[in-house]
Amino acid sequence: MTEAGLGVRGIPRVAIVGGGPGGLFTAYRLQCWSERPLEILVLEASERLGGKVRTGRFEAVPVRYEIGAAELYDVSPVDEDPLKDLVRELGLPVTGMAGQAVELGGRILANLDDLEGALGGEARREVLRFDRRARGRMSPRQFYDADLAESFRDEQGAQGFMELMESVEPRVLGARRYLDTLLHSDLATEAGATNLRYGLQNYLMNDADYMLLYSVEGGNERIIEELVRRTRMEVRLATRVERVRGLAGGGVELGVAGGEELRCDHAVLALPQPQLAALAFEGEALGEDMREHLAHHDHPAHYLRVSILFERPFWRGVLNESFLMLEAFGGCCLYDESSRTADARHGVLGWLMGGQAAVELDRLSDEELVAAALDSLPSALAGGRELVMEAKVHRWIGSVSALPGGRQPRPITLRHTPSPAGAPDLHLVGDYLYDSTLNGVLEAAGTVAHELAARVATR
Amino acid sequence: MTSDPIPEPAEGSTCLTVSWDAQDALRSAAGPEGARSALASWSAVEDLPCAPSSLQLLSIPSAAKEQPLLAEAARSALAGREDLAETQVTLLGLQGAHLVVAPGFLVVLAEPERLAIAERAAVEACITEAELRRVEAGIASAWAPLRTAAPAAFEVTPETLAQREELKERYGELLDLRRTWSELGPRVMVPHVYPPTLASQVGERLRERLRLHERFELLDPALVAQEQVHGLVAERIGESLNARKGHALEWAIILLLAAEVLLLLAEALIG
Q1: Domain check: are B137 and B239 in the same one?
Q2: Confidence (pLDDT) at A271
Q3: B contact residues 36-55, partner A, Cβ 8 Å cutoff
Q4: CATH level 3 topology of A55-216+300-401
C-alpha cells in the first residue's frame, strides 16, 4: 500500500481520478486557489489526457478536425463567463461560430422566409408561436442559472419538454419537422427523454440574447495542452482505478488495477457517468449513496461523429455558416470544420449524429457510416462524394447525459459530495452534473476546487 | 430604369440616388470584361439635395444558381473601377441572395420574390455605412486644422484671434459630426433577431462584414479628443478676450483717476 498523503510530509494529497477536462480543470483551479502547497495526482485510465476534448488530424494531409467537444458556449451576453475568462487566461485565440440553417427535404432553410417559401406561412407562424412560448418559459437570466435547483423549477419533470413540443399544431407538419431537426442533435436524445429545462436550453442556445458559440483557433484540445503545461501535478496514464473507499479517520483509499492501493486526503472522481458506474464503492453508506447518485443521473445520451476530408470545401456558397442541421438521422448537425481555419485549402465536414439514431447507427461499420453520412448530403452538395480523401469515425455512445443534473437538480453540496457520511472527502466533478457542456464541467471543477482549497486551508 | 421603390430615408438622413437600366446587359455579359463594360454606364440619375452619401443600387432578380457568376462579374467590375480599391469591394453570399458592396455601390442578386426584402435590408446597412464613412472622413480631415489651432490652448496670439470665426465654424461642424454619430447608434447596435429572417440576416451579415460596430465605437474617442481640444482653445480665446476687455477698463479707470488727480492739483495751485 502506498502511504503517501494523509499528512505525510505535511503536504495534503489530492487524487483526481480522470484526466479529462473535469480532472484538469479541478487540478488547475486547485493549484490557483489553494493557500497551502498540495500534492496533486491525476490518474487516467487511457493513454491520453483530455477526455471528450479532442482534436484530431487526418493522415492524408494534416488537417485538423474536432473529435469531441465541437464548440464552447459564450454566456457573457448574460453574465460572467468563467470558461471564456479561462480561455483568455490561457492565451488562446478564439473564433466565433454560428449556424441557423436547417435542411428539410433537400431544401436549405436559412431563415423564416425560406421556411415560409418551403412549408407555407402557417409553418412560419407556428415556429414563431413556439419561439414565443419557449422564451416565455425561460428568460436569459433563468437560462444562465438553469443549473441551480432554485433558479428554474421544472415541475413537469421529463414530460415538460415533450408537452412543449407537442404544443406545435399537429396539422402543421412542417413546423414540427423543422423544430425536431433543429433540436435533435444538440439534445443527443429524443424530446420525450429530456426535461423542460434542458430542452429549452438547447432551443434557446440558438439565440444570441442567451448565448453565443465559439471554438479555439488551432483546436479545442489546446485548452488541455495549456492546462497540462501550467499545472504542477503528477500524471499517471494507463492507471485504472477500480475501487473507492472512504477512510474512517478522513481521507479516501483508491484501489488501482493491478493491486496498488493509494491513500489521499481528498479524492475527486472526474469521470463520465458510465465509468463512474463501473467503480466499486466500498462501505455501506458510500455504496448506498453512490447507487442513489448514479440512479439519479442515469440518463445516457449518445453521439457519433463522422469527419470527412475533401479535396476542397465544395459546399461554399450553399453552406456559408459554421454548421447546418440536416434532417437525416432524426436531426444531425453538419459542421463545416474548415470554417474554423482561415484560408483552408482542403475541406472538412463533420456529422454529429445524436440520440437513438446514434445507437442504431453504432451497429454499422465505419465504411457504412461514412456512406450513410455522404448519402445524407442535400442534393446541392451531392457532387462532393467524388472529392473524398479520407474519413474518420468516432463513437461516443453513452458518453453524455440526456438529463444533466437529473430530473430536478440536486443541491450543489450533494451533487459534488454525494456521501457526506460514508466518504466526506470524496468529491465528484462531471458535465452530467450541470448541462453536458464544458462550461458545466468548469463550474463543477470550480465548486469542488473552492471546497477543497477551503478544507485544506483549515485542516 | 429606376429600381423598385426604396425605403424613404428618415428626415435629415441620407437620401438615395438609384439608377441603372443595364440589368439585362449584366445578365447577358460574358464574364467580368463584359460585365465591366456593362457597368461602365452605371451612374446616378438623381442627385437628391439631401443626400450627403449617395448609394447607387443595382438589383438583379436571378435564380440561385446564376447568382455566383453574376456576383463575381459585379465584384470584378467594381474592383476594376479607378475610384475604388479592390479591398473595398465585399461579396456576401446568403441562401438565395448575393450582395456585392463597395463604398457608394450596392449590387443585390436575389430570387425575384426575395429581391425587395434583401434590397431593403442591404440598402439600410449600406446607408448606415455611408454615414459612418462620412463621419470618419469628417474626423480625419479635422485633425490637421485642429493641430494648427491647438497651440492656442497655451498661448493666444493675434493670429489666433483672427481665426476665431473659422474656429467657431469648425466647432459647429464637429458638433454636427457628433450628432450624426449619436443618431447612427441605434442603426449600428441593432439587437439580434431570432428566429432569423432574410432581412435580419442580410443586415447582420453586412454590419459584421463592414465592421460597423467596431468602426462606430472607434469614432467616439476621436470625437472626444477633438471636442476637448476645441473646448480648450475656445476657453483660452474666451479668457483672452475677457482679459483684453478687463485691461481696457483698467486703463480707463487709471486715466480717469489721473485726470481727477490733475484737476485736484490744479484746484490746489489756483486756490
Answers
A1: yes
A2: 95
A3: none
A4: FAD/NAD(P)-binding domain (3.50.50)
